[in-house]
Write the structure tokens for this entry.
Amino acid sequence: MSFRTIEWRDNAVVMIDQTRLPVEEIYHSYTDFNSVADAIRRMVIRGAPAIGVAAAMGIALGVREIVADTQESFFRQLDNICSIMAGTRPTAINLFWAIERMKKKALSLQGSLLEEIRSALKNEAILIEQEDLAICKRIGKNGADLIPEGATVLTHCNAGGLATAGYGTALGVIRAARESGKNIQVFADETRPWLQGARLTTWELMKDNIPVTLITDNMAGFFMSRGEITCCVVGADRIAANGDTANKIGTFSVAVLAMEHNIPFYVAAPVSTLDLTLSDGSEIPIEERPATEVTHIRGLPIAPEGVRVRNPSFDITPAKYITAIITENGVATKEYRKELAALAAA
Ligand code: MRU
């Protein structure tokens, strides 16, 4: 791919600014954990796996900032850094998964020199990033067979290289299907209000010369009813034990439309997106974002000042609408509770 979403470079975390794409391709270099936390909050970086990587790298920066005379003080400050990271965005489980992994790594080194712990945490964060790329490739490979030759694939939001360490989950499946020689094209929902589809999915697919057509969110039913959509592939922010899936707001509507038209609806995600502690989707916390995301587009008002607004950033697609969940460890299709538990343990 011709861009890097996030990387550790010379003791700084470098990320492409997704608030500015596609108009400007700008990279920021962060050297302290608070700015990384702020970048996650403001969605400079977004997408479940990508914010997991960002949190891990932010923690690796944070422990470099700790001044401590004792192990106790070091671990107290590490806990504080982790809580700040955990407070950035509530829905994507990958963020908490990465924080837990970093904490576990640090705890396994209790008693070691602080310099050794710092260095190990930096390496762990880089490893999380490298593993994520490899995981996306495996998700792609596992999902590619589900996409028929000549397919038009509808996707929602951005579950691509920009939402991961690279390659993507839903877009990873599309990339892998293309790499296997299939002639397929993508329809990208614009994904109001933040426009991840219009701004990011189209940008990265066009960079890779993958044919993409942009539609507004309310056009999906029209194209399905005309027989122009073969299947849908989306990413996920958190998947409960029964397969209920939280993903970008609007995903649920696409899934219901897909079932109405007998169109397969696939979710592609790493097993780190599974939250088997939650029995079903009703327990997944849903982020509500600022009203201005709805009332304004790029700073310009599109609604009367003072209008009441709701802005849930994610919705839950019940498992019954999902034809299959594609992970790096395999594909779950029917009995999600049993199959997801097996994939998580694999
Ligand atoms: O609010 P965002 O842009 O972080 O939401 C992203 C999504 O909903 C993605 O579809 C999801 O994180 C999967 S990314 C591989």
In short: The first strand starts at residue 6 and ends at 9. DSSP finds eleven helices and 16 strands in the chain. Residues 114-144 form the longest helix (31 residues). The chain has two domains: 6-136, 140-345.
